[in-house]
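Researcher: Please translate sequence to structure tokens.
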Amino acid sequence: MANLNSEGFVAGIAIGYLQRDHSDMVFHTGGMTILLDGETNPHAIRGHNVEDDFGYSWGFNNYQSRWIGSPYHVNRSRTDQDGVFYRFFGPDPIAFHRSLSFRTGSRGDDMESVVYYYQIDDSLGQSSTNEISSSMLIPVKWQVTGLFPQANNWEIFQQKEFVEQLPAGVWPDQLVFEDQTLPVTALTSDHAWIDLQNVFFERNHTATPRAMIDHSAYVRTTVNSDSKREASLRLAVDGWCLVWLNSEKVATLRHENGLETVKIPVQLKEGKNELLLKTNNSDISPNKRLWVINTAIEL
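Model: Translation complete:
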């Protein structure tokens, strides 16, 4: 709904829906995800469903106030509703200092949105390569594969899968090992974020996109360095994560307090460096089903 560079704040949002898919309620979309300052200080806001994100509960009604409201709502039945909803944040806007990516889940309905924001004009832009500045590298091209079940168990999560034995380099479109065939999906980072919620999800009530939980996946990328050097791998995840650089395990992270950022000392070699991560998704409180990864190399 919005993808912004530079500094500013989000003042409010309005969304209109015309329901086309009648298998579930129109506002069951899986909720909003707001990814903030990915290049410098990654943090996030994770919603739940449309009515919750707009300050309602168990649906909408035609109520309007200064900050939230629904000026138009037609409720023909539980699974046949149209409406327009707004929320303004007033004295508590959503501030960003480097970038913002504002998105929401979607179903097979007609939807339009307007995001109200203030922004300081700046020449900052998203890099098309993996170098964002002379002091930071941000991988852009990623590949992801999975899923592996029962990843809410720490011992099972740490078990070695065949993906860890693959040679360095680009994966094919499918990974095949014995009776396992796993698809490979290409992702492009957005302000240093990659989002697995749109890759791995289930259809609740056949329509509502809900991020898969209690599973794990692997992601890989390459980082180009013009020399052998010491660096810091900055990594933000909302769950557990195993980290390899050039086939050497460099970190085992058991994050259980929502999105957390760590800095891992690493040694880059000259040329291509292969980064491999294994991560899971959990809704064990206070985790928020936020299956995103933020990655940067600080030089």
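Researcher: Any highlights?
Model: The two ends are 33 Å apart (CA to CA).
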